[in-house]
């Protein structure tokens, strides 16, 4: 802090006085000035001239050459020619939403950050979820890490929490990031594969880089094929600091926990969805918000006091390590609700620019060497992606507080700065704008005073050297079906690797150090000999298992917002549909009627019933469960319809709850479906309850071995 210059009076602090406390819409209001509604407006050029003919270029005669003087055509085509900007180098595919964050209580003992101190305040947020590997138009459901980036528009400036849906990362030092990204991206000669890590260069790199072992096993787990953005956890990954008003610092790890529970797709379903609905996750988020099912997350932190920095058997600065929740429970801070879709994808979701370096007083960095490198990268990448250093002026990126400083000019400057002095100190403009002292009631940012006495050195800390104990902890903490999925994913991905030495190295030098049984199972699937022992000594971690890591323990327990397909044809029992809909509505779930075509059907009771789509239009993969009502004629038609039968078989294979009511019972025999807790036959209320309970379990895991070609 500097004391030599005049400070800002309290009345002008950080813009708090200019904002309406508790106003959830402040960001939306600030965006309002930039939103453009064309209704009842004339078509004009960019210079404001009304256009009389938007159909024809100016020509010499109706069949003659076009004229260069046609400024209307030239302006239109020129703008079109430059419509694209470079996509993000990673996380190119994404989708965004507006919402708010509200703290549960005053957390001033932990941090002086204002948005975590005032429970009456709703802080606007913009969130962008993303995949990492694929380009902008790639599929949503590929096996990949998901980005979970949140911009908080606080009264003290923007805070960006730029996290992922997994709590660790592939590398420990930022200098390895270009290597990692080059390895995972499509191969350079043929640009294959899109949106997948199942190829030689990825496995070559990670098998040579043992520090990736922990993150890779997360990426081979169900976490890499989330059911929806709404059902993903989020993590800040790095250790950050909270600083309170007394200047006391604590280390923190950020966690987002979804109210919808955490759950995933199954692999075959994820692959099919990538083709049948490329936009599956994007659509789900959009529709949930449009329908008023506002997605919600709880933000929490694991808090580690300065004194406990070294009390773990790993280094809290190592981003390939998590802190088991059983060792440090999560302190809930507040909740985030997403309640508004963007108006324009490009202006909002594409142009939003996150940076882990965007922090506010009360939050600070740790020395995690991955985080330190990120602090440089994000602003740097925006310079080429958004065309210069003024991207903070784009409406979606503007902080709510007024910005004044001596930065001037450059490409796309939109602020019209008044005054003569673009330097500080100055005596021409009364010394304004001036520094603000850091005391909490003033709000000037002050970096945490950390004493460091060390050599300038290029070296990985020896405390970062264990790469396997937490990968093992993760594997051992999985439920049996989750372990099977991990074995399946490694086998699938390595099966796509052409070079046998890479497959063998991953099995012998990585998997064998995580778990010998895992290595043996994958080796068998690849036709390789099972390794007899690992290659390194793996330390015993403090815990054998961390139940908090298994998604089996993270379900919401209800069926809120779940989607149920109802298969119908002429002669369907209309009463059964009404009863189902009523029961589902009471639980907050939704039904969609699907017919052989999109044409309405006539019920057994003679009523004409519109359907939402044909069965081919909304395939089973986009639903959580399938319900077939009775009605002899309808069931007979469905039983003779290959699309309907495939619909049921596919839902069965994807371990979804299926209810066959009344005459629909016959379909079980036609398809030879084996009985289990998720196959409900019968129409009474008890059966409906059993159906709902099965949906709440998300998937019928006991069925899985029966759906495999070769039993494990
Ligand atoms: Fe990023 N990352 N990253 N990353 N990252 C970007 O920034 C980078 C890392 C994450 O929706 C880029 O604006 C480096 C970890 C998300 O706009 C780029 C390193 C985590 C997003 C970049 C990392 C992330 C990005 C590309 C290693 C989880 C999307 C475009 C030191 C904690 C944000 C952009 C959005 C995007 C660099 C590692 C999350 C190139 C150098 C670890 C969610 O700047």
From TrEMBL:
Its cofactor is heme. GO terms for molecular function: catalase activity; heme binding; metal ion binding. Signal peptide: none annotated. InterPro entries: Catalase, Catalase_AS, Catalase_clade2, Catalase_clade2_helical, Catalase_core, Catalase_haem_BS, Catalase_immune_responsive, Catalase_large_C. Residues 1-26, 421-444 are annotated as: Disordered. GO terms for cellular component: cytosol. Its EC number is 1.11.1.6. CDD domains: catalase_clade_2, GATase1_catalase. Keywords: Heme, Hydrogen peroxide, Iron, Metal-binding, Oxidoreductase, Peroxidase. GO terms for biological process: hydrogen peroxide catabolic process; response to oxidative stress. Residues 44-432 form the Catalase core domain. It catalyses: 2 H2O2 = O2 + 2 H2O. It comes from the Bacteria. The keyword Metal-binding applies. Heme binds at residues 88, 128, 177, 374, 378, 385. Gene3D superfamilies: 1.20.1370.20, 3.40.50.880, Catalase core domain. The active site is at 91, 164. Decomposes hydrogen peroxide into water and oxygen; serves to protect cells from the toxic effects of hydrogen peroxide. Belongs to the catalase family. HPII subfamily. This is Catalase. It comes from Pseudomonas chlororaphis.
């Amino acid at each position: 802090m500097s004391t030599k210059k005049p400070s800002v009076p309290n009345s002008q602090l950080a813009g708090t006085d200019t904002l309406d406390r508790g106003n959830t819409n402040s960001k939306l209001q600030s965006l309002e000035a930039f939103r453009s509604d064309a209704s009842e407006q004339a078509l004009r050029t960019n210079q404001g001239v009304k256009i009389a003919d938007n159909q024809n270029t100016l020509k010499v005669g109706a069949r003659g050459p076009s004229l260069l003087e046609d400024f209307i055509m030239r302006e239109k085509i020129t703008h079109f020619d430059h419509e694209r900007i470079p996509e993000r180098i990673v996380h190119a595919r994404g989708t965004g939403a507006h919402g708010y964050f509200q703290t549960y209580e005053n957390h001033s003992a932990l941090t002086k950050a204002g948005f975590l101190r005032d429970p009456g305040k709703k802080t606007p947020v913009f969130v962008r979820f993303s995949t990492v590997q694929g380009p902008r138009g790639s599929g949503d459901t590929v096996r990949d890490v998901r980005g979970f980036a949140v911009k908080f528009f606080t009264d003290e400036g923007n805070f960006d929490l730029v996290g992922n849906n997994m709590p660790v990362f592939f590398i420990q030092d930022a200098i390895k990031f270009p290597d990692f990204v080059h390895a995972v991206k499509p191969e350079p000669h043929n640009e294959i594969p899109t949106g997948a890590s199942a190829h030689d260069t990825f496995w070559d790199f990670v098998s040579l880089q043992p520090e990736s072992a922990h993150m890779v096993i997360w990426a081979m787990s169900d976490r890499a094929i989330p059911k929806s953005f709404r059902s993903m956890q989020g993590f800040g990954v790095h250790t950050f600091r909270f600083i309170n008003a007394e200047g006391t610092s604590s280390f923190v790890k950020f966690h987002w926990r979804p109210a919808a529970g955490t759950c995933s797709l199954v692999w075959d379903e994820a692959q099919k969805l990538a083709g049948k609905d490329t936009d599956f996750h994007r659509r789900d988020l959009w529709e949930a918000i449009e329908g008023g099912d506002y997605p919600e997350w709880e933000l929490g932190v694991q808090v580690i006091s300065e004194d406990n920095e070294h009390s773990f058997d790993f280094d809290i600065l190592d981003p390939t390590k998590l802190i088991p929740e059983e060792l440090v429970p999560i302190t809930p801070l507040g909740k985030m609700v997403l309640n508004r879709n963007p108006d324009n994808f490009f202006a909002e979701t594409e142009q939003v620019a996150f940076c882990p370096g965007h922090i506010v007083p009360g939050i600070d960095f740790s020395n995690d060497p991955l985080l330190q490198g990120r602090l440089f990268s994000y602003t740097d990448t925006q310079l080429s992606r958004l065309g210069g250093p003024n991207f903070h002026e784009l409406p979606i990126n503007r902080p709510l507080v007024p910005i004044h400083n001596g930065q001037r000019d450059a490409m796309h400057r939109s602020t019209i700065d008044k005054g003569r002095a673009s330097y500080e100190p100055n005596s021409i403009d009364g010394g304004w704008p001036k520094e603000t002292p850091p005391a909490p009631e003033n709000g000037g940012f002050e970096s945490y005073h950390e004493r460091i006495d060390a050599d300038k050195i290029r070296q990985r800390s020896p405390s970062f050297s264990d790469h396997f104990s937490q990968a093992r902890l993760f594997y051992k903490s999985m439920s049996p079906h989750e372990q099977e999925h991990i074995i399946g994913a490694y086998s699938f991905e390595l099966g796509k690797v052409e070079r046998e030495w890479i497959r063998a190295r991953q099995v012998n030098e990585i998997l064998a150090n995580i778990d010998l049984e895992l290595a043996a199972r994958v080796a068998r699937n690849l036709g390789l000999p099972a390794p007899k022992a690992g290659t390194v000594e793996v330390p015993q971690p403090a815990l054998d298992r961390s139940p908090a890591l298994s998604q089996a323990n993270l379900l919401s327990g209800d069926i809120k917002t779940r989607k149920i397909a109802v298969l119908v044809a002429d002669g369907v029992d209309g009463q059964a549909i009404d009863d189902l809909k009523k029961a589902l509505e009471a639980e907050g779930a939704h039904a969609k009627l699907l017919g052989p075509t999109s044409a309405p059907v006539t019920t057994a009771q003679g009523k004409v019933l519109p359907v939402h789509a044909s069965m081919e239009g909304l395939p089973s993969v986009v639903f959580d469960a399938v319900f077939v009502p009775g009605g002899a004629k309808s069931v007979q038609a469905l039983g003779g319809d290959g699309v309907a039968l495939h619909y049921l078989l596919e839902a069965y294979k994807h371990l979804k709850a299926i209810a066959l009511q009344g005459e629909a019972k016959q379909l079980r025999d036609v398809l030879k479906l084996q009985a289990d807790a998720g196959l409900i036959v019968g129409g009474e209320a008890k059966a409906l309850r059993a159906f709902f309970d099965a949906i709440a379990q998300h998937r019928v895991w006991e069925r899985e071995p029966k759906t495999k070609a070769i039993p494990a």
